[in-house]
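Module 6 notes. Inverse folding takes a fixed backbone as the condition and produces residue identities as the prediction. Think of it as a translation problem where the source language is geometry and the target language is the twenty amino acids. Below is one complete input and output pair. Work through it position by position during the lab.
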């Protein structure tokens, strides 16, 4: 059997290039999605404070809903990458088609439910009068776009499984541009008000779903794969996605606990928290893009390892010389597709995660004194945000490792463990956040000290808990099967 080429060395620039070729377009797609909210905010803001407040409330509800169903992307990435890597292309495309059908069905259900409960949800969020009316108008106009948005998540996962992050980036960018154009027409040309913004976003999301689904449909037809849903496939997609939904819920609980504690500290700490959180979220985009690359590469490598193992088993079972030679060729071809072992990928991705975290952390720390001024001119908010930013910056190398390990385990389809680990990480963090918010810790009542304590708890205790649970899992071998 031929030796693996030297290019597969963990120090090889070839692997670094492949990581970048996956991560950079993924970063572009991740950034393009928030542009929907920014564009909507900019345009709706010209309609008045009431409309802008309604948009703020409605977009929070919508982003929370979409965030809960982001498992549609993670689950399809892991499943399709592993099947494609194993050389089972038809099965991978079939799983991708079923994942898209599941996303469409869930999107239709979520859209209908959100439309029906919009008044109750806005009231539960504390909105009344004109603001509540504006929020309900935007929500109900946006609901028809949820099926498209869910399909975007699932189709993006399939394409990532094919090691294609460029197509989602192009579609996300085009969708953001289309959103601006359609919103401008409906808001200012037709005069639909805030409902026009929601309708424009729904149209853009539906167009993105079609653009992403079409190449998958073409691939499926070419491979002779049925485009109809399969009951077993839908059950499998739902089964693999449910644990990731639990994981998403655990993250939301942590975020809500953090916001509650910041709110309890007072107006100035809450405003400073918003500044720090915005910068942390921006940094997380870069780390999450690397996690996307890890998902796709690890899933593919595991599939290739499975294919190689099957070839070896067949050889031991006494295949003919010709068949064994074909199996050997298939194994070497699979190895050459990615060219790196699971151990090599794991080491290199961790270096990327930690290194990127160090770089972004250094930049954030260097700008801690002036970055808050880009968000506010309030001296109290700036004074509270500056030291808190230093705490956040110090934890970014740890966060880089956490994101990458998350990506590795997601790529392996290890959703059950991630669900359990997500719940376990809440045990040390949530009580600590509640203690900070209730002034139970020494000096937590101060605008600056309380917020610093909260971010020490979030950036170090919570992230360390996530890191410990994922690292202990990644160092073993159970997730590789």
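Target side of the pair, the amino acids:
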């Amino acid at each position: 059997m031929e030796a693996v080429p030297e290019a597969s060395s963990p120090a090889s620039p070839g692997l670094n290039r492949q990581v970048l070729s996956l991560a950079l377009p993924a970063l572009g797609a991740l950034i393009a999605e928030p542009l929907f909210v920014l564009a909507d905010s900019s345009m709706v803001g010209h309609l008045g404070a009431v409309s802008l407040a309604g948009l703020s409330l409605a977009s929070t509800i919508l982003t929370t809903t979409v965030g809960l169903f982001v498992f549609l992307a993670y689950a399809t990435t892991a499943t399709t990458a592993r099947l494609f890597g194993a050389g089972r292309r038809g099965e991978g495309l079939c799983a991708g088609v079923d994942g898209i059908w599941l996303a469409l069905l869930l999107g239709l259900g979520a859209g209908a439910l959100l439309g029906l409960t919009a008044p109750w949800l806005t009231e539960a969020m504390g909105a009344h009068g004109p603001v509540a009316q504006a929020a309900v108008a935007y929500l109900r106009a946006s609901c028809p776009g949820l099926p498209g948005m869910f399909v975007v998540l699932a189709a993006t996962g399939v394409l990532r499984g094919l090691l294609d992050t460029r197509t989602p980036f192009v579609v996300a960018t085009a969708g953001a541009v289309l959103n601006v154009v359609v919103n401008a027409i409906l808001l200012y040309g037709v005069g639909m008000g805030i409902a026009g913004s929601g309708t424009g976003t729904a149209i853009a999301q539906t167009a993105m779903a079609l653009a992403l689904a079409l190449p998958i449909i073409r691939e499926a037809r070419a491979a002779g794969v049925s485009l109809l849903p399969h009951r077993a496939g839908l059950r499998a997609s739902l089964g693999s996605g449910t644990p990731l939904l639990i994981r998403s819920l655990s993250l939301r609980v942590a975020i809500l606990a953090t916001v509650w504690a910041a709110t309890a500290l007072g107006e100035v700490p809450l405003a400073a928290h918003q500044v720090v959180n915005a910068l942390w979220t921006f940094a997380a985009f870069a780390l999450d893009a690397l996690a996307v690359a890890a998902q796709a590469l690890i899933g593919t490598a595991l599939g290739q390892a499975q294919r190689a193992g099957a070839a070896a088993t067949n050889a031991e079972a006494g295949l003919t010389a010709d068949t064994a030679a074909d199996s050997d060729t298939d194994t070497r071809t699979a190895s050459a597709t990615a060219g790196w072992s699971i151990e090599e990928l794991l080491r290199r991705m961790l270096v990327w995660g930690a290194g990127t975290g160090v770089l972004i952390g250094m930049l954030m720390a260097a700008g801690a004194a002036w970055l808050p001024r880009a968000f506010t001119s309030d001296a109290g908010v700036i004074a509270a945000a500056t030291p808190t930013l230093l705490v956040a910056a110090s934890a970014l190398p740890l966060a880089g490792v956490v994101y990458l390990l998350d990506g590795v385990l997601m790529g392996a389809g290890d959703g059950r463990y991630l669900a359990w680990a997500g719940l376990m990480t809440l045990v040390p963090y949530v009580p600590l956040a509640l203690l900070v918010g209730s002034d139970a810790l020494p000096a937590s009542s101060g605008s600056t000290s309380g917020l610093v304590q909260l971010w020490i708890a979030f950036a170090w205790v919570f992230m360390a808990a996530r890191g410990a649970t994922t690292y202990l899992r990644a160092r073993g071998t159970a997730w590789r099967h």
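Reference fact for the lab report: Residues 16-229 form one domain.
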